[in-house]
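Suppose a colleague, Dr. K., hands you the sequence of a protein chain of 399 amino acids and asks what its three-dimensional shape might be. Before reaching for any lab equipment, you can write down a predicted structure in token form. Begin with the sequence itself:
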Amino acid sequence: MTARACPVCASVDGELLTAMRFVLPDDHLLPNHYDVVNCARCGMAYATPLPAQTVYDAYYRDLSKYADALTGTSGGIREWDERRLARTAGIIAEFVDDTTDHIVDIGCGRGGLLRRLQLLGYEKLTGVDPSHACAAATQAQPGIRGCVGTLEALPADLGRADLVILSHVLEHVREVGLAVDRLAAMLTPTGRVYIEVPNAARYSDHLNAPFLDCNIEHINHFSLTTLERLFVSRGWRVIDSGRHTIPSSPTALYPVIWLVADRAPQDAPRRELLADRALRPALEAYVTRSRDLLRSLHALCEVIRRDEREIIIWGVGQTTAILLAQTALLDTSVLAFTDSNPLYHDRTIRGIPIVAPTTLAGLRPVPIVIGSLLHGKEIASAIAALGLLNPVFHLWRNP
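The predicted structure, expressed as tokens, is then:
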């Protein structure tokens, strides 16, 4: 764990916004704490201190939640995820006229965005992902190539790209500046990049769970101003940009920003680098609203702790990690954790096993606490489908 400079302007003058703490599966690769700070110079927000980029590369290689077809996004298996991918593909298509152009999606997940581009007529499509399972799922789609790799370790035979996509990648990357610089070497002389990340300026408008955006994976919090500054400061020209919302579950929306950029000509006029003075108050409002929601959830968890001798927690993702660290759930006796993602099975949290949902029928029928606000209704449906007789506590409403 080492302190970070600002990923946009390299300033070390960061002012604390909030301190994050998590309870993670035992032997987890990523840290269980960091601070979220705001850069006094340019306005960017980011997490610090953090482990080396190699730790993050290993995490996404071995424990990517996007590898599982059932629980991960990026494959378009669920209707709402398919709608998201179709909209992104439509934006990209506005900037790629030639359907024979080589399009490379870095951090492609299961290749759903490339499949949507294929449906629009694009023919030369390559996905690169650190997860072998994600690369294999992408490769399994006819006419689409899937490769294992990262921006630091690209496939040797990748070739130059006419368009490189980084869709919901840069918020996960520790060495952001190096990642942006590497994009230039991937492109043809007229090549472009499409970048999409969460819109930190609107976190507070879409508060689906407390501090859900300040999770163990999202370590950079961009506004459109700070994202544009990152690229302009490193010799890029922003061609177009925008803001919109995407589905993040059957019932929730999530704010995003995007830009399309190419390498600026050497004789191009220098664009002014603007600081974002609106992001800090927007994030302060988000922190306040998250803390208020966390207090209400703490009260619900205290009721559960008082009335139930033992529980099962369904969901071991970001919300559970925060609730275990910062509410009465930490002191509640837990018989087992469960999650639909097989990557978590046979692991433990505080020595307590994480089991597959199908094994719950063989355990004592203690109450199940749904540890997700974003996907709580989906989990409730899964519990009903399994025919379990356990009482169920939904944290998004009073039990």
